[in-house]
Amino acid sequence: ASVLSAFISTHSEPSINLLPDLLRQIPIVLFSGEYDLICNHLATENMLDGMTWNDKTGFNLGNETVAPIDPWIVEGETAGFIQYARNLTYILFHNAGHMVPYNQGRRSRAMLHQFIQLNLTHSNNQTMENNNTGVNPIMHRYFKHFILIVFTVIITGIALTGIIRYFACKRQQSVITVPYHSPNLFRSKQQPTTYTLLNRNRDVLDDKISA
């Protein structure tokens, strides 16, 4: 906590104001995780595209050309994308969030080693030309974002369906069914039998005659 508080500055200037002067003196590497929701890489890339350093804006190389976005290869695998112009190197890590070294430890170490040796953009080391790989990095990036959005929509739909079914079942259980007996209007009425003294005497007389 004490280390963190020592780095906190409430009146610090935005990095877009500090980076141009630094880039005139030293090389700088910036990196982002493609799944970082705290410091989204799209915002970082928009900032770099609009920032002017070393007499040019963004990754402009002059003569209306822009620095290519090449696949960044680590240990024979595509680890992300890399772009370089005028002392600034930008790397986008695949399969990493806000804590890039935690998500991609080996690749983060490879990035640090390459940067110390100043060979991040060496074509024989860790980068490949787009024409050789046949990979369009921009389309690949948007495709992964599309897959993430579709997956999120599916999970949200499943969750909402489960919630709706749960409350529907709870509502059915709370309903008490009261049996209802409709009167039978066509039921035949039993006629009461009147047993009088006369009927009794007749029964006794019939018994004597039979005897």
UniProtKB/TrEMBL annotation:
InterPro entries: AB_hydrolase_fold (IPR029058), Peptidase_S10 (IPR001563). Keywords: Membrane, Transmembrane, Transmembrane helix. GO terms for biological process: proteolysis. The chain crosses the membrane at residues 146-168. It comes from the Eukaryota. One of its GO terms (molecular function) is serine-type carboxypeptidase activity. Gene3D superfamilies: alpha/beta hydrolase. Signal peptide: none annotated. Belongs to the peptidase S10 family. This is Serine carboxypeptidase. It comes from Adineta steineri.
